[in-house]
Amino acid sequence: MIVSVYCSGSIAKGVGDERKLCWTDRERERVQEGAHPLEVVFLNPDDPITDPTNVLGQFGRDMYQVLMASAVVVDARERRGLGIGVEMAAAAALGTPVIVVAPRNSKYRRDHLVYRGARVEGYVHPHVASLAVAVVDDFTEAGEALKGLPVAPRGSLVTPAWLREPIDEYRSNVLAGDRPMLDALHRLGVHR
């Protein structure tokens, strides 16, 4: 069986990002190992885009990938930014399960935390706890979590306008020239 994973996490954008933890082949290999015998097709937001000036289409590409994914796997090993939060919220709105890689005693998950005047045991950041179907220690465990996802269709969710417009822009004006995404759709047996 084939599943698809949207790789949510920081993208190295230039100088200063070389020390940032990002998705690499190593993380993808770990997910595939954990998911075995499933075959995983990775949807990568850092693939080159044909028209980087089309920001609505670029956002639409990310949201289309979230829509098409069997699951979104979030790299939360360290502090993340606005984009990852939006991807998690979009996944929830689109019915795509979210699996968060947040090792114990990292930014978004702590064994003990004094928080808002109280000591909290087994703390998971509220946004992560609310949106994720699983919070795991590493990428191998994320792959293992993929095996437990339902295989049935997600149902008839209505795509909110804030997601529909950029997805439509991407489908209409960018997808035809997006070779990495077209290849992924082919591997998934999806005809656009």
Please write out the topology.
Elements: E1 2-8, H1 25-35, E2 39-43, H2 55-68, E3 71-75, H3 82-94, E4 98-101, E5 109-115, E6 118-124, H4 126-131, E7 134-136, H5 139-146, H6 161-173, H7 179-188
Characterization of this structure:
- The chain is of the alpha/beta class and 192 residues long.
- It has a single domain (2-188), classed as 3-Layer(aba) Sandwich (Rossmann fold).
- It has helices spanning 25-35, 55-68, 82-94, 126-131, 139-146, 161-173, 179-188; strands at residues 2-8, 39-43, 71-75, 98-101, 109-115, 118-124, 134-136.
- The strands form two sheets. A five-stranded parallel β-sheet has the order 2-1-3-4-7, sandwiched between helices. A two-stranded antiparallel sheet has the order 5-6.
In short:
This protein has 192 residues and is an alpha/beta fold.
Helix content: 25-40%
Name the helix and strand elements from N-terminus to C-terminus, one letter apiece. Answer: EHEHEHEEEHEHHH
Shape: globular
How confident is the prediction overall: mean pLDDT?
A: 92
The CATH topology turns out to be Rossmann fold
Characteristics of this structure?
Rossmann fold; 7 helices; 7 strands; alpha/beta; globular; two-stranded antiparallel ribbon
